[in-house]
Amino acid sequence: MAAEPIPRATAIVVGDDPARWAALGFAVGADAVTVGGVRIILADGPPGLRELRLRGLRAEHPDGLPLTSAGGAPDAADPVHPNGALAVDHVVALTDDATRTSAALESAGLPLRRIRRPPESPAIQAFHPAATLVLEVVEADGRAPWLWGLVVVVADLDATAEALGDRLGAVKDAVQPGRRIATVRREAGLSTPLALMTPRG
Fold first, then answer.
1. 0.70 exceeded by the pTM?
2. 3-class DSSP state of 54
3. Separation between Cα atoms, residue 163 and residue 3, nearest integer Å
């Protein structure tokens, strides 16, 4: 019997001003950024990372996370981004109980690929692939599950860092061996944490 396909992330809804993403070198069209087949919708209303939409999701709002079912429309074509953006690497979700949240995600069709625990990492981290990206669940005290931030892969992180100047923090080694990462500074005015990262090896 063939295994069911893994749900595919198709869109992320962020309450942000499109002009702020354009200032970071993203090609913005119709108040959205498409990167790696994932449409980042820059919407009016409450700030922050508000929703992750997936095609083939078995159950919506697993453990209260704002994961919803997407329609069957074909993936949007990527424009060329001045900052070299290639893909959404991962979306980070915080939870008060990573074991409970991961179990709910597995029931919704998102398999658990790996889990890291202290002392390997500062906190429990669980990784659930969603075809176009990975949903990273991080255990943090005292708050119900919520979508926290995202990481985008760029072709040349050093060139992007030079172009963005003081809008981007220092480039440093990432947790993933052989990769590097830099975080967009708060002064850039985004409502959700965003980091830029080198491609996967």
1. yes
2. strand
3. 45
